[in-house]
Amino acid sequence: MKKVVLAICVLGSTLGVQAQALNEVELNIFNTIVNQSVEVGYEHFIDKDQSVGVDLLINDRFSYYGQNKKADKFKQFNTNAIAVNYSFYFGGNDGEHASGFYAQPFLKFRFGDYEHDVKVAEGQYTRVKTDMDSFIIGVGAGYKLVKNDAFTVAPFVNIGRNFNEDVADEFMAVELNAGINIGYRF
Questions:
Q1: Which residues contact 14 (CB under 8 A, 6 or more apart)?
Q2: What's the rounded Cα separation, in Å, for the pair 177 and 124?
Q3: Confidence class for position 13, pLDDT limits 50, 70, 90
Q4: Bridge-partner residues for 81, per DSSP?
Q5: Alpha-carbon distance 63 to 77, whole Å?
Q6: Cβ atoms of residues 144 and 100 within 8 Å
Q7: DSSP E strands: which ranges in 18-122?
Q8: Dist. CA 80–CA 30, nearest whole Å
Q9: What is the pLDDT of residues 23-63, one digit of tens each?
Q10: Which of 179, 106, 169 is nearest to 144 (CA)?
Q11: pTM of the predicted structure, to 2 decimals
């Protein structure tokens, strides 16, 4: 009888753990609209208030610098990036893990180049390429709203330090990024 009760308890706790979502996929909808970039992420919850994640950024740009196709004002980012992060959640609603305010240190690697036109004489321009391959370390903060431990909305802001001298000369060494992630947990 003790074995049957123990087996039921173990089975019940296993089902309780599996009912709680352990993974989340997300899309930064804000930057998709504003920057025409695609930022998708995956987050794995390792505890009620901690997670590890990876983000893939397609057409990644430095902060919110624009692009332009006009011949005398040409600016084009040909960059992508991958980032890994570790999130710490503070607070949130009971029964909804990994919600509320969070802090998120991250490491990011951007690769590709930036092309732009530089005026050399009246009416004459030359196209210059800047190597954007860079290692970035930073921290982010935000607030994650969770509905039924399934759907999430998370506004956030990140600040990072870029370790590429060419990028720092062209733009600056410190980069600011913000967005709104829409996610689904499973």
A1: none
A2: 34
A3: very low
A4: 57, 110
A5: 11
A6: yes
A7: 23-28, 38-47, 50-58, 75-90, 100-121
A8: 17
A9: 999 999 999 999 889 999 999 999 889 999 999 999 998 88
A10: 179
A11: 0.81
Q: Answer yes or no: are the C-beta atoms of 140 and 156 closer than 8 Å.
A: yes
Residues facing residue 109 across a β-bridge: 82, 135
Mapped onto helix, strand or coil, the DSSP state of residue 31 is: helix
How far, in Å, CA of 180 to CA of 157, rounded? 9
- Can you tell me the distance from the alpha carbon of 42 to that of 51, in angstroms, rounded to the nearest whole number? 10
Q: Assess contact for 133 and 78: CB atoms under 8 A.
A: no
Rounded Cα distance, 68 and 71, in Å? 9
Q: How far is CA 183 from CA 18, 87, 167, in A?
A: 19, 15, 31
Q: Which residues lie across from 108 on neighbouring strands? A: 83, 136
Separation of alpha carbons 104 and 96, rounded Å = 19
82 HSE (CA, 13 A, CB side): 1
Query: For a pLDDT cut of 90, what percent of the chain falls above it?
Result: 63
Residue pair 172/159 in contact by the 8 Å Cβ criterion: no
Cα separation, 14 vs 29, whole angstroms: 35
